[in-house]
């Protein structure tokens, strides 16, 4: 026979999640975001167009900027980005860690304005700049990605590298190497950014060592040096082949911070209620005609 | 009023779920011998239609809520006093020296003092847009001209430590002027130079500055971080051609014939004085945008759904399902 109690009951059940969703409105979830300091090498050798993107040659600095832009686009909202540029032995911090989505527009313009002409010196002491970048990241409480071609200029002194031991392993992150694996000349630009030839051997110190021995005016990615620095610092080394590599390395080597976000439960509750309510209209309790007749 | 936007317009396909209640499915067939046994009743037809529509309303409102209706974040343009300010900030090595007023003990470097003064100035000018150019040997764009105050605050915070290279004031000011060259020409343009000293500006750069200052109509304020024994800004004895002296730089800026004032940061009121000058130059209010936050309507929809569902359930409970004698099968 008819069971009048079933449908009001089922529909009453549908009412419960809606009310629950409205009364207990939000629950917390933790989702991973990143806080990262990106340090860009803007020394002269970064103008060398010995990388390839979409089948065309592209300068190392341009790849750095594209990678940074890609990172800005890919990192989840709530992530914070700090950017420093380095020449000589000092990373220069442009701004403290800054939430990326709320400040997307000025960050995008800042990244596109990065230029080798911001450099205040022509030397590049990679290892020392890396040490100071680690200290900077430690101070800011961020991960570190250090982008460079690894070419020390002037070459390291006989006593070699700064002391990384106290900092070793204290900063999560990566060293990203840029540049080709063949020695090529370094282009030279004037203050208006027009190319005016290449560096000659008399323009650079003559005591180049390692892969640059006898070719101090030529450049390539100094991969052995970067691998050595990675081993000393506890950072991981990767070659930055495409602009995506920066975001991938932040994901792979960075330390994700769990950002607690509030999520509104009401839509989930409402979807559940909708399902239950609509199900209650399924012709479940319609009595079979035959049986109805039999029972009467 | 504009129609609300939807986060998930595809959810509107779920409106098809209104059909089962509208078609009266599952309304619990009453077993009667024959429909003909029931008299046709106009009022019953209307009531039945009303009940079906009522049964569909929870589906309608739940679906609309799931589609995520909202009024988007809007930007309202308001008018207020304010200017477009580009700060040309000295980041050279000399800024590493301690900063202290005459006769007092230094507790901070000039770099720290400059960041502190800049932060104070920034806080006093909530309606101005800011941009920051650092200069040492070369100008460095620290943050482009923006109304995003968090970005400027983060940039200022980063300037409290670290110094590099020489001092090229001319290139810093030239960079700031170039930024104004791409900016809204109607906005009041202000360059705030913060440095601990002065420096030679090459003739070629001077010509450029003179031309550009008038082209972009920029005002110039020179905040001189004068510590302990540094020479004063109003030193009448100085030879005007020696640009390494702050008083000579001050004289050069005056000779540009642009709205200009020089201040010694040792004056406690230097920040207030510059702020007051900027407030005065606003010939007319400057439009700035204010965010009106996004507003969601989903919860309103769910409340309506709950209301209609409750009503529907009450009517179901009130339903008489026992048939008058004689009609039952």
Characterization of this structure:
The complex is a heterodimer of chains A (296) and B (329). Chain A has 8 helices and 14 strands. Chain A has 296 residues and is an alpha/beta fold. Chain A folds into 2 domains: 6-25 and 265-295, no CATH class; 30-259, Rossmann fold (3-Layer(aba) Sandwich). Chain A has a 6-stranded mixed beta sheet with strand order 6-5-2-7-8-13, sandwiched between helices. In chain A, strands 1-14 form a two-stranded antiparallel ribbon. In chain A, strands 3-4 form a two-stranded antiparallel sheet. Chain A is elongated. The relative contact order of chain A is 0.20. Chain B is α/β, with parallel strands linked by helices and 329 residues long. Chain B folds into 2 domains: 5-72 and 293-318, no CATH class; 80-289, Rossmann fold, CATH 3.40.50. Chain B has 9 helices and 13 strands. In chain B, the strands form 4 sheets. Chain B has a 6-stranded mixed beta sheet with strand order 8-7-4-9-10-11, sandwiched between helices. In chain B, strands 1-2-13 form a 3-stranded antiparallel beta sheet. In chain B, a hairpin with a 3-residue loop joins strand 7 (129-135) and strand 8 (139-146). In chain B, helix 2 runs antiparallel to helix 9, helix 3 packs antiparallel against helix 4 (149-158) and helix 3 (110-124) packs parallel to helix 8. Chain B is rod-shaped. The model of chain B has no long low-confidence stretch (mean pLDDT 83). At the A-B interface, helix 1, strand 6, helix 3 and helix 7 of A face helix 2, strand 8, helix 4 and helix 9 of B.
